[in-house]
C-alpha cells in the first residue's frame, strides 16, 4: 500500500513509523525546508506512553526521558506561590516531559532513509488519493496518487478541506502562550505545575537533564505584536513567585516563542473521506490546557497503525498484497465492488460544504473503508470530548474578573483528590484497539 503522510509533526511521523514497520510504502511530505521541532517541551501522560509502546517506540523514548517529574509537587499555585490545590500522584499518573526536538529525532531515526521529502507543499488533495503539489515543490511531479493520504498537516490543514470542506477553520481562544526551555539546569526545589492569576498563568515542567520547560500564557488579541518576546514575557510576569523570572532569564532570547492558542471552530462530522484520513491537529486541534495534544496525536497514529496492519501483510515489502488483491477483484467484477463505502455513495455528509470541490469520486476497497470507519468511530468521540474539556479548562484558567478568578481558586481548592484522579483517568486511560 502506498501511503502519503502530509506533515512531519509528531502525529504524522509517528504514523509513518508505525505503518512503515507494518509493511506499507510510506512517504512523508513536509512543506518546510527542514523538519523543525521548535524549542518547547511536551507532556506525555500514560495514554501517550501506551501509544508509544504500541508503535514500538517506548524504549527509544525512555532513553531521553525519566520519571523524575513524578516526584515533584504539582498542582495550581497563586502568583505569590501559595498553593491553591495540589494534584495527587494518582491524578498525575505516569508522566514524562520530553524536549520536542528529542522526540522528533527519535521518530526521524526510526524511519527508512528518504522517507521524508521536505520543501514539498501540497496545494490540494482529492478523496481518491490524488495530491497536487505547489509549483515551488519543483523537485516533485506536479501530482501523485496514493492508496491512502493521511492529513497530519496541523491546525491550518489543507487536507482537512477534503473531509470537511471550507467550513471548519481555526478558532482563536483569546490567549497566547510563550514557550521556552532553559539553556542551563535550574533548581526547582521539587515543585512544578501551574501558577494562575487573572488572565495569566505560568507552567513549569522539569526535563530529564535538569533543564526546565516553561510556558507563560496571557490574554491578548490574536494579532498582538511585540518587539522582544522574551522581555515582554518577563514584564508580564514581574512580581510572580520564584523561580518564574529566573526561568525566563535562563532561556536564550531566540528560543522564546509565542503562539496564538487556537482550536477548531466546530467538530468534524467525520475524520475520513474516500482515501483520505485525518489525524492530530488536522482532525481535532485542541488547546493545550490538558496537556493532551501530543498524546492524542500519538493515539491517532497507533490506532491507525493497528487497524491498517492486517491490510499490509506480515513483513515489509508485502504491504500492498492484500489490498491489491481486493482492488483487482473489484476491477474485474469479482467479489465486493471497490468503492462500496457507504460514506461515498450519496454525496457530501452532514458537516461538509456541498459546494466544495472534493475531487473525483473515490473507489475504496471494503477492507480499507472498514478500517477507516472504525478509526473514525474510535477516535472522533474521544478526541472531540477531550478538546471540549481542554477549551473549558483554558477558559477557567484565563478568567480576568477578580470575583470569578477567586471563585475558581476556591473551587479548585475544594475538589477532592479522588475526583481529580477520576477525571484524570478518564483522559489518560487508553489501550490500542483489538483486531
TrEMBL record:
Q: Where does the record place Low complexity bias? A: 330-340
Supply the alphabetized keyword list: FAD, Flavoprotein, Oxidoreductase
Give the molecular function GO annotations. Answer: FAD binding; oxidoreductase activity
Q: Where is the FAD-binding domain?
A: 3-312
State one Pfam family annotation.
FAD_binding_3
Q: Which cofactor does it need?
A: FAD
Q: Which InterPro entries match?
A: FAD-bd, FAD/NAD-bd_sf
* Region called Disordered, residue ranges: 329-366
Where exactly are the transmembrane stretches of this chain? none
Report the protein name in the record: 2-polyprenyl-6-methoxyphenol hydroxylase
Q: Which organism is it from?
A: Brevibacterium linens
Classification of source organism: Bacteria, Bacillati, Actinomycetota, Actinomycetes, Micrococcales
